[in-house]
Amino acid sequence: MTRTVSAGAALLSRLRSVGVDYIFANSGTDFPPIIEGLAEAAATDMPLPHALTIPHEHAAMGMAHGYYLATGRPQAVMAHTNVGLANCAIGAINAHVEHVPVLLFSGRTPTTEAGRFGARTVPIGWGQEMRDQTALVREASKWDYELRFPEQAPALVDRALAIATTTPRGPVYISLPREVLCEPCPATELDAPPAMRAPDAEPGPQAIARLARLIAEAQSPVIFAQHGAGGADGFAALQRLAEDWAIPVCQYWAVQLALPTDHPMAAPADPAPLLDKADLVICLDTLAPWMPDAHAPHPDATVVHMGPDPLSTRTPIRSFRADLSIACELEPGLVALASALNGHTPGPAVAIRHQSMAAANTSARARVLDAAAPDDGDGMTKAQIALALSDALAGRDAIVLSELGAPMAPMQLSHHQAWYQEPHAGGLGWSFPAAMGMQLADPDRLVVATMGDGSYMFANPVACHQIAEALRLPILIVVLNNADWGAVRQSVLGLYPDGHAAQTNDMPLTGLAPSPDFGAIARASRALGLRATTHAEFSSALAEALAHVTARKGAALIDVATRR
Q1: Average of pLDDT values for 121-143?
Q2: 275 within 8 A of 222, measured Cβ to Cβ
């Protein structure tokens, strides 16, 4: 007779077989077959992913997001019926916009009321039923399905992973009814290779050759990059082609580093002067390379978009011109482009352009660093905090996350995983759990999460600190605390610079005073909690915090007073 296990055990075992390392889970009353499946699989020596108890689903999604950024390997999140899935929604939106694959599962309240193993046993079984539970995350999912028969479980895992990792990548969702998870499933071939794999997303050689010719012939090319360069090889290729062909790279509203901040072709983040004279505009995986209300390429310029979804097909309204679109993963695209440019020789005009652009960019960077220099005032600017942090991290192989936190420009950043900003989706509370996911993936790396005070509160910090302590994750958290919704304030000032709100000392709906004692929240989970109000205090706190985390004594938090 064919050996069987529960569908819950089969699903869990299959996740491990296809390469999932962790299941970030917050359990509920729909989880008995999952929990029994974990125990059953362990008792029979079936290989399983590490199942971690994550006491808030938003943190689970952020950790899966960060783990993928660190490793390139998708992970699984399991939530409790509709209420747990609702808590996953912000993380799903963030992952969807940033092309981060996540295998998202949630239980479904039992359909049956009696007469079947796994039927409803508590009143919330009625209270949590929805006609369309998937609607909570459907627009943020590439694909969704509900497990209907136990024998489907292994094949659905294979299909979910293949679709999630198909370009453009993104989250997928499967709902898991309790009764089905309780049923027996054949245990054969649970360790077989995946039944399907994502197709390669290589750039078309003709399109790459055309783009290489455009670069070779351009008088004033510019590159806009927002999502990095796809990996170490892409990062090196972009540096090489920008240097060889004197192409300024503008990292406007970037969420990942594409070029070292001190590279001679690293241009300021203002698109206007670059667009004014550019005859070739290359947009590398950019959702919004500039603001159409303020900037526009020259009518005679050629505009090229290259990336996994060059037309951003998942975005309903997006009207940026695209004279040439190249659909590919960014890293192989950049490597292919750098190789194709080897067939062209830069002319004398390129050397002249290089000298001019390098001088302008070096001068602009010097102004940024001067503006970030310390002073004796109370509180610090974000730029001052970024520069002080950068100086403290010099020589360390660190990752810095910034969620309305330390800006990129004043920092010395040199490798492809050096810096990440919050997703363009704007789902706050991302950087703290994402940093924990990165630390889990790369325990020897120094990971620093910088965020505004509002973002810290959105992260469910009590839950996050508990996770950091439980998993022994020695991350450094820097809270830039201005007791204010700074992003909201700046948005108001952008639209109404001379309005009534701009003239008041107490702008409505932006204040976060009185500020909690964030250090006390950290100390409640045995983390180091420090406070700084001046540059000298911040430098001292940084030294103490870095010594604490590098000695692996646990997490450390610095609450630093920030000027508006």
Answers
A1: 93
A2: yes
Domain residue limits, the chain: 4-186, 205-365, 374-561
Q: How far apart are CA 305 and CA 224, in angstroms?
A: 9
**Residue whose pair of structure tokens reads 């994550």 in the numeric block:** 54
Least confident of 119-123, 191-195, 371-375: 119-123
Distance CA 93, CA 474 (A): 27
What does the alpha-carbon distance between residue 487 and residue 506 come to, in Å, rounded to a whole number?
15
CA distances for 252 relative to 86, 176, 395, angstroms = 32, 41, 26
Amino acid 1: pLDDT = 62
User: What is the β-pairing status of strands 4-6 and 184-186?
Assistant: antiparallel
Cβ neighbors of 273 (< 8 A, separation 6 or more) are none
Q: Which residues contact 266 (CB under 8 A, 6 or more apart)?
A: 248, 249, 251, 259, 260, 361, 365
CATH level 3 topology of 205-365: Rossmann fold (3.40.50)
- Count of beta carbons in the 10 Å neighbourhood of residue 377: 12
Please tell me the predicted confidence (pLDDT) of residue 41. Answer: 79
- Give the integer Cα–Cα distance in Å for 526 and 247: 49
Question: Would the CATH topology of 4-186 be identical to that of 374-561?
Answer: yes
CATH of domain 4-186: 3.40.50.970
The CATH code of the domain at 374-561 is: 3.40.50.970
What is the rounded distance in angstroms from the CA atom of residue 99 to the CA atom of residue 89? 15
The pTM (predicted TM-score) of the whole model is 0.96
Q: For 95-116, what is the mean pLDDT?
A: 93
Structural tokens at position 430: 């991302």
Of 418, 410, 419, nearest to 366 (Cα)?
A: 410
Q: Do the Cβ atoms of 10 and 150 come closer than 8 Å?
A: yes
The C-alpha angle 328, 331, 335, rounded to 5 degrees, equals: 100
Q: What string of H, E and C letters represents the secondary structure of 80-134? A: CHHHHHHHHHHHHHHHHHCCCCEEEEEEECCCCCCCCCCCCCCCHHHHCCCCCHH
- DSSP 8-state symbol, 248: -
Q: How far apart are CA 341 and CA 223, in angstroms?
A: 15
Structure tokens that stand for 267 in this block: 């241009």
Kindly state the helix (H) or strand (E) to which residue 502 belongs, with its residue range: helix 500-503
